[in-house]
Amino acid sequence: MTLSSAWMLMGLQQMSYALVDEPALLTDIFRTTAAFWTQAGLRLIATGVDALVVHDDQGSNSGTFFSPTRFRQMVLPHLRQQIVTLRAAGVPIILHSCGNVNAILPDLVETGIAGLNNLQRGAHMDLQAVKAAYGDRLCLIGNVDASGVMSTGAPDEVTQAVIEAIQIGAPGGGYILATDHSFHEGIPIENVLAFIAAGREHGGYA
User: Is the pTM of this model over 0.85?
Assistant: First the structure.
């Protein structure tokens, strides 16, 4: 939670001011939060977990919080070190990032993550494009629209969305069916049940 911890601690507005007014302070915060969560992750690995999820939202629906240049200068070195250290402890690392991260996706892949969640459909994260570019390097997770079809669609529309995601993401392996957020409040229970049923019927690997 390199970037996420910073804006949760400071607030997005204050963090944005610091980006210009106090970049050294912001860099120290990124370094400190990355080190803290690295140690937390190492303790979890020591308990015997099979994989670790690093939560670090990097974008909004329209693009990354920082410009790609600023991200590479200020955030990426600490996020990369965190992932490299955790990988060296012997488990695959899944990165969770909401938002449109297309502009920095190559950088995220180069950190050595094993999986990417949640491929937010409403933020223009195209499962087919990401699969074509990185499907041989990443396990892709998500992309069924939680705020769209899951919340406002009919159960048969949910079923079709699940089938589409599986047809795009599953060939060749490396896809985990999920929404692009969660089963959050406001999603009708019948749509949750339709999602699960469609996943059981059309998903799975031999």
Answer: yes
